[in-house]
Amino acid sequence: MSTALATPLPHGGASPQDRAVLLLLKARTFIALILVALFFSIAAPNFLSPDNAVIVAKHVALNAFLAIGMTYVIISGGIDLSVGSTVGLTGMVAGFLILHGLSIGHYVVWFNVFEIVGIALLLGVAIGAINGWLITKLNVAPFIATLGTLYVARGVALLSSDGATFPNLEGKAEHGTTGYPLIGTLSFAGVPLSIWLLVALGVGAAYLGARTPLGRHIYAVGGNERAATLSGVKVNRVKMFVYMFSGFCAAIVGLVISSQLVAAHPLTGETFELNAIAAAVLGGTSMSGGRGRIGGTIVGAFVIGILSDGLVMMGVSSFWQTVIKGLVIISAVVVDQFQQRMQQKHALQQRVKGA
Asked: The pTM is what?
């Protein structure tokens, strides 16, 4: 072993420059959020107005719901491309039940709003279960399995109305279907219900990952599936859970959007999966699995949301917005790979020091 290699480095084996770079890389999402917010506060003077801040927060919440579910799917080593279609389908099912009820023979069964919400959420979970079943039981690659359910769910959403919109979802008192728009318009202490739901889901998801055996198993499966299996982890159950949880999160978005618009459209949610992946990756979730945090994902969702709304306020073409989002995803993955190499270098230096 050479003298240069064996010479201990200060502060745990990393040079001051390397430690500074690692610190910046770990804080990259917060830095990006600050820079993006500062840029648009200057480029679009009304961007930080209270009214616009509420609008941005509502848009961020929609992306964050999907990104939270996507985070655990990616941590487990998978991917879920079906979330956008699940958003559209769950909204259409809710709209259909409000306007037409459920025909059983010569009778029509009408559900109240709570039951409709429950049915939509169960549908999202069922779509996730189908994804999990295809992946765990039939050994279909996650990309292909969820791509297939993306098309199936979108097709069913279109068939449910022949491609038309379900409008005027206020419901009728005689059918007991009123109150659905409150999901999208209700506020507590001046904060929209969707934000409160995001806080509750984010806290619950973060607790799951940090404090429960299931959370540790999700990280173990994504880090090394073979080792997790040998350690007694029920790998298939873990995978089923993360896809069902992702479907549940997507169903929430479908309900919130259709209630905010008081209408359901079968194409709602197109490309939403890209924003969810971007937020998760930007927040530090590794596409190779085994690493990520819900807090980072939510910050990443704020970056994507502020970027999207800021570009709209500046009058930037939607085509360029798509290009910019793609560049953000690529940049996030490149930075993540660089961070992993830096951490591996640091770990190697620590091993050399201890040798």
From this structure: 0.89
